[in-house]
Amino acid sequence: MSCRSDEFGADLKATLSVAGWAPDRRVDVTPWVVPMEREGYRVHDLARDVLSSLGGLSVDPVKREGPNFVNDEPFNFDPFLAASGQLEIVTRLEQLLGGSYSPLGEWTNYLSVYIESRGRVVMVGGGYIWELGRNLEEALRLALFAERRLVCLHSEPEVEPWPDAEI
Fold first, then answer.
1. DSSP per residue, 71-92
2. How far apart are CA 17 and CA 27, in angstroms?
3. pLDDT in the model for residue 59
4. So where are the chain's domains?
5. Looking at residue 167, what is its pLDDT?
6. Which CATH number does 10-155 carry?
7. At what angle do helices 136-145 and 10-18 cross, to 10 degrees?
8. What's phi and psi for 21, nearest 5 deg?
9. By Cβ atoms counted within 10 A, which residue in 20, 119, 158, 164 is the most buried?
């Protein structure tokens, strides 16, 4: 799994391009990775690859209303926004879902977005964990095109699952 442009549909490529992305775009991830690793994060290769291609971009949604959510905020690819000073979130994610998660950025309501080393993308905040996609393209299509339902994977005991709990 990687962040190759041939994995994206034409409509997704066009939307990312408006935000400054290009198929050959590569940025130095060191300014994100080194401080995150100092905090205790394990920034896996897939996260590095995604940040190399999309890091620093803010991508506005094309469609703002999905089947069970409203989104009028961009997807921001900045791992500091997602996770700086919040290592306990990754620890909790890994306990609940398994795998190895690295921060990517933030999306709707400025909630933290993480990617698992095999590609699954989740969003965390307010006592919830939502699945954005089984891979990066699925996650971006949900965030930018609102093509399907937002799925709640987990909610803490003090909050009701929203929209529905899947675990």
1. --S-EE--HHHHHTT-HHHHHH
2. 15
3. 96
4. 10-155
5. 42
6. 3.40.1580
7. 70
8. -80, 150
9. 119
The owner of tokens 């590095």 is 48
Q: How many other CB atoms sit within 10 Å of the CB of residue 51?
A: 27
Residues 6+ apart with CB under 8 A from 6: none
Residues pairing with 75 in the sheet: 59
Start-end of H helices in the chain: 10-18, 30-39, 45-54, 79-83, 87-97, 136-145
Contact, 103 vs 90, CB < 8 A?
A: yes
What is the full per-residue pLDDT of the chain (167 aa) written as tens digits?
A: 455 556 799 999 999 999 999 999 999 999 999 999 999 999 999 999 999 999 999 999 998 777 777 788 899 999 998 888 889 999 999 999 999 999 999 998 889 999 999 999 999 988 899 999 999 999 999 999 998 888 899 998 888 777 764 44
Gap between the Cα atoms of 5 and 54, Å rounded:
11
